[in-house]
Design brief:
Jelly Rolls; globular; 6 helices; binds fe (ii) ion; 269 residues; alpha+beta; binds 2-oxoglutaric acid
């Protein structure tokens, strides 16, 4: 695992709001990420999965954007180990420029053959905390190209984005109704070989193209919340009983819900 960051990479991330690290995993590590993703998704969806369809409603537009399985680390031990890796936590903490990082949620995002594009959106406005430093890791489990639905970013917008939620609709460019000034920004594509990762700030606008190939485009992702983040009133993925116990402003520090995977003070021990 290429778990060292250069000053140039950190600067690129902070300026642009995204960063590609090519060939992050070695061949054995990639195999383990693929195995754990495949197993945990199959378990979640109840049986063997060919990644060709979303099991819920295969004809819905969003079902044909990707098969989406959340919080696989809760139910699959191997996935839990991969997602809670302190080396990944340290990278997330360093890029975010914070003191510590917690898991918000992991999710597998598998775009099927002939899958629809992922419309432009921001991540943080969906979540139960409002932070300008939250970020996501997007792990390429296949070679990701312009043809099979690579990620695209609007560089730099994380510094001016707002927390209101625009949502992901069917229109690729729906976000630009809310941010018309971003229409002039040239989107940057991030194709990368399998085993690479892409980081993005949760307020960086991003999208993915359609999958024009006959093979699935597999990605495993994880969103991270800076330690010290507080509840903003939105439920998002919080279970009912925990959600109902919270008041706006409460610290989101329940280790069962949001495990702390890195704190800079740990490096000094
Ligand atoms: O994989 C995709 O198509 C979209 C990914 C995404 O929106 C995310 O990781 O936040
Ligand atoms: Fe996203």
């Amino acid at each position: 695992m290429r778990d060292q960051l250069t000053a140039v990479q950190i600067e690129f991330y902070q300026t642009n709001g995204f960063l590609v690290i090519e060939d992050f995993l070695d061949a054995d590590e990639l195999e383990e990420w693929r195995r754990c993703t495949e197993e945990s998704v199959a378990e979640r969806l109840g049986g063997a999965v060919d990644f060709m369809t979303n099991q819920m409603d295969p004809d819905a537009f969003y079902a044909r954007v990707f098969t989406q399985c959340l919080r696989l680390a809760d139910t699959h031990e191997g996935m839990n180990k991969l997602i809670c890796d302190p080396r990944i936590g340290r990278l997330a903490t360093t890029l975010a420029g914070v003191e510590g990082i917690r898991i918000w949620h992991d999710q597998a995002l598998i775009k099927p053959p002939h899958g629809n594009p992922t419309a432009w959106h921001l991540d943080v406005p969906y979540w139960s905390f409002s932070s300008r430093d939250a970020l996501s890791l997007w792990m390429a489990l296949d070679d990701i190209t312009l043809a099979n639905g690579c990620l695209w970013y609007l560089p730099g917008v994380h510094r001016v984005a707002r927390f209101e939620n625009v949502g992901i609709g069917e229109n690729l460019g729906g976000l630009f109704k809310v941010y018309p000034e971003w229409r002039e920004i040239e989107p940057q594509a991030c194709p990368c070989p399998a085993g690479s990762i892409v980081w993005h700030n949760g307020l960086t606008a991003h999208a993915a193209g359609p999958n024009m190939t006959i093979r699935p485009r597999r990605a495993m992702t994880c969103a991270f919340m800076p330690d010290g983040s507080t509840f903003n009133g939105k439920q998002n993925i919080l279970p009912d009983d925990y959600f109902n116990s919270l008041t706006i402003g409460d610290l989101l520090d329940d280790p069962k819900q949001n495990e702390l995977i890195w704190q800079n003070s740990w490096a000094e021990q």
